[in-house]
Amino acid sequence: MDEYGRPGAVMQLTGPGGGAAPEDLRRLAGWFQQAEPPHAHDLFTAAFGLYGARHLGGGPHPGTPLPAHTSWWHGPAAPAPVPAALRDGAARSPRGRAPQREADAPAETRTPRHARPLRPAAGGEDAALSAERRAAARLLLAHPLVTAAGPWAAGLPAIQRHADALAQRFERFLGYRLLVDGTAARLFKAGLGGGCGRPLRRPGGAPFPPGSYACLALALSVLPELPGPPEPLPADRLRAAVRAAAADAGLAAAAAEPQLADALRALADCQVLTGGGTADGPVAVDGLVAVDGLVVVDQGLARLLVAGPLAASEDGADLVRRAADPGPDGERLSVRRRLAETPVVLLDELTGRERGWLRTRQRREAETFADFLGLEAEIRAEGVALLDPADELTDLDLPGAGSLARSALLLAERLVEQLRPVPAAASAGPVTGVPVPDAAIDGVLGDIADEYGGRADWRPGYLADRAALRRDVLDLLHRMRLMAPADPARTATGGRTATDVRGARTTPTGGWTLLAPAARYAPRPAEPPPRPGRHARLTAPGLLLAELH
């Protein structure tokens, strides 16, 4: 029971922002304002924990599980690597995140994406209840805040029915706390650590700048001073309160209109702010930042937003560290959280204790994840990926429709065919990644643009701006853990240099590293590779090896 007598609630709320006092929120605003953008994203993830899970699509290879020493480089491909629909640009239903704002249809008439069971609910009422509980757990992992007025409202009754079981399971299995009441369910997730931030994004897709995060923290700090529901207040009064708080904290620049618009939009996305209307009628959600209307503040929801230990943290870096700290049972919770939230867990990224724990329990953990969340484990020599057979439980789509996702998957496939390490290289241990020459990336992307750029569904800007195509494709592959920025001195091969991987004397290339999981989307070596295009001839085997030497 929580302080309000609600079952399954394991979070004690001691102040606004889920335990954050106004002075702590204003300290947080200062940390945001001083941070560089990557650190600001880490801070947001640590302080709020509102990110969704991220998993690769494509499903595991059917049949008997393969031995754990099987490599991604030389094991079976995904059941349909680079599906024909993606090559051809055929229409496909988008998956991934739904819009954060309420759709036009009433909430009670919509079925949430994660509601259908992954496994048949055969065998009577117990199987049906288990499937419903699994769907509720998946919804919470994808959307840690589910409200009665939000886009996932249809899933809230199932969460409420299974509140006790879900709270116990999340607490025991992932160390996450769950609060459920009549109007909302909040899963308080841990931080992801440094370099793993999940940013908020503006409507056009650009990530929030540090000032917008600072303004969000300032807005939360003033909400307790304002009238709560059902009493509306003028939107200008809310803006003025935020600007006054910014001035008091010496952060006046953070409350400039673009940043203030971002902050209010983010609060509206969480249903903390709703339109109260004007003399001419109700105000739309976007009107909160553009129309001189009325807004209603839900302070109860506002108290659920902050999840990180603000009061105990000395500065932003300390907050990022504390929010990700799994506590005394470190190996178990740290590895499980990575498996649950990220596309791939590479063994080389784990500590020795974490690696030993995972390798001794990976089959049992796979069974638990399948039962709890409907995720299927792909266990390989280089690491483990939890895959979603329904291709839903992810905030990014890969494979996916659209020119960006298709280009990214095609780039990964063709780079694997060019750079796949020979099997003998694995005799010295798993090869986590290989360096990628810039000429290989540019050549393959040039071929992809030539082959697909004339299609109606291709984004026109990518033909005019190849640098933007390169930037966005590499960013998507990085976020999905199929490529990574290379260390300038050592590649991501578990400390082994390119010399060890290719069997020849080389110097590190810097730039980018192709990671082993990318090979699950490429045809096996025995299959004929696609015919190289005119740009790829620049990276034919002879020239490629010459560049690596």
Write the layout of secondary structure elements.
Layout (H helix, E strand, L loop, with lengths): L15 H4 L2 H13 L2 H12 L35 H5 L36 H18 L2 E3 L8 H6 L1 H12 L2 E4 L3 E5 L21 H13 L10 E2 H14 L8 H13 L3 E5 L16 E4 L1 H4 L13 H9 L5 H12 L3 E2 L5 H22 L2 E5 L2 E5 L15 H17 L13 E4 L1 H15 L7 H5 L1 H14 L3 E3 L12 H5 L9 E4 L25 H8 L1
Antiparallel strand pairs: 1-3, 2-3, 4-6, 5-6, 7-9, 8-9, 10-12, 11-12
Q: Brief description of this entry?
A:
The protein is mainly alpha-helical and 549 residues long. The chain has helices at 16-19, 22-34, 37-48, 84-88, 125-142, 156-161, 163-174, 210-222, 235-248, 257-269, 299-302, 316-324, 330-341, 352-373, 403-419, 438-452, 460-464, 466-479, 498-502, 541-548, and strands at 145-147, 177-180, 184-188, 233-234, 273-277, 294-297, 345-346, 376-380, 383-387, 433-436, 483-485, 512-515.
The chain-level mean pLDDT equals: 80
Q: End-to-end distance, in Å?
A: 64 Å
Query: What order do the strands of the largest sheet run in, or round the barrel if closed?
Result: 1-3-2
How many helix segments? 20
Describe the structure.
- The N and C termini lie far apart (about 65 Å).
- The strands form four sheets. Strands 1-3-2 form a three-stranded antiparallel β-sheet. A three-stranded antiparallel β-sheet has the order 4-6-5. A three-stranded antiparallel β-sheet has the order 7-9-8.
- The protein is mainly alpha-helical and about 550 residues long.
- It has helices at about 15-20, 20-35, 35-50, 85-90, 125-140, 155-160, 165-175, 210-220, 235-250, 255-270, 300, 315-325, 330-340, 350-375, 405-420, 440-450, 460-465, 465-480, 500, 540-549, and strands at about 145, 175-180, 185-190, 235, 275, 295, 345, 375-380, 385, 435, 485, 510-515.
- Mean pLDDT is about 80; it is low at about 1-15, about 90-115, about 280-285, about 490-510 and about 535-549.
